[in-house]
Amino acid sequence: MSESKLAVRQADDRHCQMEYRRLGLTDLQLSVIGFGASPLGRVFGPSDAREGKTAVHLAIDNGLNFFDVSPYYGLTLAEERLGQALLGKRNRVVLATKCGRYGLEQFDFSMRPVRLSIEESLKRLHTDHVDLFQAHDVEFGNVEQIVNETIPAMRRLQEEGKCPQEPGVGGAALDC
Q1: CB atoms within 10 A of CB 144
Q2: How would you class 68 by CB atoms within 10 Å of its CB: exposed for 0-12, middle for 13-18, buried for 19 or more?
Q3: Model pTM above 0.90
Q4: Residue 43, phi then psi, degrees to nearest 5
Q5: CATH number, residue 119
Q6: CA-CA distance, 128 to 157, in Å (whole number)?
Q7: Which residue range forms the structural domain that includes residue 131?
Q8: Active-site annotation holds for 102
Q9: Rounded CA gap, 111 and 163, in Å?
Q10: What would the pLDDT profile of 54-110 be if each residue is shown by its tens digit?
Q11: From 20, 72, 73, 102, the catalytic residue
């Protein structure tokens, strides 16, 4: 029996009780364990698409509902694979993606790429919105641009319903 089939059988044989916590002041209830989807994009080495899909389904079946991804992970491959795995299951998850970082040395926090990023992510993820949208690794950007372009662009997307929660910013501390 393959390892992935064995993992599914073991998960079916035990009863898992997942804990959930409210995210800040939102109405979102997130599982205390999240699914970081970067491995789906081969970030840490080769990965099989079928095993990735099985892992996503197994996570959902065991109560994980928070999935975090980025167009940077596998240069969009992680989003593509996660989107395929979530077909028919989108209403069971809290989905987060990012903007601003698109390659090892490729960053763009200006307004137009932020908008294009979410539009392209939504297509890859097969959804009309993400629950959480974050500027990724902002320490590689310019503080003024983050404040004057990135966040306003994210707010507009929030108003349009593409990312209904408050925008997020992630990365190391900025020197202000």
Answers
A1: 9
A2: buried
A3: no
A4: -65, -35
A5: 3.20.20.100
A6: 12
A7: 17-169
A8: no
A9: 15
A10: 999 999 999 999 999 999 999 999 999 999 999 999 999 999 999 999 999 999 999
A11: 73
